[in-house]
# Entry
Amino acid sequence: MKRIVISVCLLALTALQTMADDYTRYCFKGKMGGKVSVEIAFQKFSDARNDIVAGYIYYPKAKDPAPILIVGNQLEGSYYHFNEYQPDGTITGWINLSISNENAPGGPIIDDGQWINPKTNATFSLTPLQSPFNMAGTQKHRPDWWQDDPLEYEEPDCIGSEYGYQQWNQNYQSMMGGNVTFTAAGKDKLHFEVSNCPGNIAEGSSEANRPAVLNGPQFIYSRVNECGYGFKATFFKKFVVLESVTEYETFGCFGMGTTFEGIYIKQADAQAGLSLSAIQERWQTKVIDDVPTGGLAIMLTRFDMTWPTAAVGDACQVMELGVAKKVLDDDDEYTVEVDAKNGFVESYNAGSDRQTMQACVWRRTNGHRLFAVVISQPVDPEIEFICFYDYDPQRQVLTPDPGVLGDWLARTARGNFSFRLPKEGKDLLIFDNLEQTTFRFRWDGMKFGQGEVKP
# Structure
């Protein structure tokens, strides 16, 4: 076993840091395998409430050195296991450590340790070494490169919209992992959807009328499926931990004993970066407030702040300029056109794989307005859907109004349909792309009538 020169320091976080009294930090510095310069620092909770440990590994001789997140668990006794995560959630290393003599005057001792490449199994040894620091006094040292405390719990309003991880699977000889998205559903309430990469089986989501309810930085959700599976989510600043709370018998709906369990790295901040599929499934769950007027620009902006997409964001920027037409990309003739007089905006291109959109407003006979947005994308995945909202000028809110089309909204979600909002006039057109049929929906002042086949 090659010798690795390592210095070990036991550190207490300062009172200025969140939950300072609850953390203990360890620091390692030296060379892995006698060749690779490395510094490792991690923290754990000082009590036994949670076995999660997290910190950073830092390679000072790298071309562009930067701390890399490591997260794992304290195992039985003083054994620790970490995964080394890239920003996209890819696991690029495993770290195993055994520490003893934590309370000795000379400091903790690393009994054994390894850094392992998950794909090749190449292993760099960590040779036992006692700390050269006198641990009797309070240690103030911390690495200069140390970032935010990764074990700090996340605030409910800052919970990210998307988390994920990827790891190499030797049996399948491919990367596998999982993703989970979260959507705000009211104060301290979240909808979730867990979806995994090809080859994984465990998938599920919250019921439309039963969001998860936060209790501090955690929630427990029961009966995800007919097998009765339940799990707990615990949110930290940079990741979320999903843990099963039901017995093995409830895993049967997933197959092969798989579950939601895992450490998922934060990929996108709150409400940012949701897929179009997720927005299509979730837009009906959230009332949009703080809409001061029923103007198209204001309503579209508030929609984009709630359900951000590239296409709607581009349209909002062009409307802010106050121009009727703007070409945003000459290569594919990507263009946004605004008809302020008729309350209509759309984007289009010459056949690229870019997102496009349409939006318009109808006046209702009760003094309210109906606001509609169509978003489409030709690939990855191919999708097009429409969202309807009732605008109440007294309450200044946009309330989802899926019933304005009767049962046609659900029908279009299951098939291959396209939409055309009225730039002039008031009728809505829906195209059945499989049957090559066009349906006209006539506006009656409050809602649309039954679809009529257009000659």
Observations:
- The longest strand covers residues 174-184.
- The CA atoms of residues 11 and 141 lie 7 Å apart.
- The helical segments are 276-282, 296-306, 310-321, 408-414.
